[in-house]
Design goal:
Elements: H1 2-83, H2 87-105
């Protein structure tokens, strides 16, 4: 009779293990859906970051071009400043040069 009880105990353990595994298997679709959602969310974040990066690169290029334009103007004003003949012309070109220098540093 002990053998029958041992078989029943083994059967109960197997049944418990089967229920546990079944519960794990039942949770897999939910877990898979959560993982897929996390992947989609991450992909959207990455895409937004790429778009922001591209916009920032364009803005940086635009600002660099603007700074270069201002530097060219400053150098032209400095050349003109060296060619002036009156104090009034010197003051005018000096003010222009300073104004553009301030723009390039901002």
């Amino acid at each position: 009779m002990d053998v029958d009880f041992e078989k029943l105990i083994k059967l109960q353990r197997l049944d418990t293990e089967i229920r546990h595994i079944s519960a794990l298997l039942d949770n897999i679709p939910t877990q898979l859906a959560e993982i897929n959602q996390q992947i989609n969310d991450s992909a959207q974040i990455i895409e937004q970051a790429k778009e922001n990066f591209a916009l920032n690169q364009k803005r940086r290029k635009s600002l660099e071009d603007e700074v270069n334009d201002i530097k060219v103007k400053i150098s032209k004003y400095k050349i003109q400043l060296n060619e002036v003949k009156t104090n009034r012309e010197y003051t005018l070109f000096s003010k222009r040069s300073k104004r553009h220098s301030r723009k390039s540093t901002n």
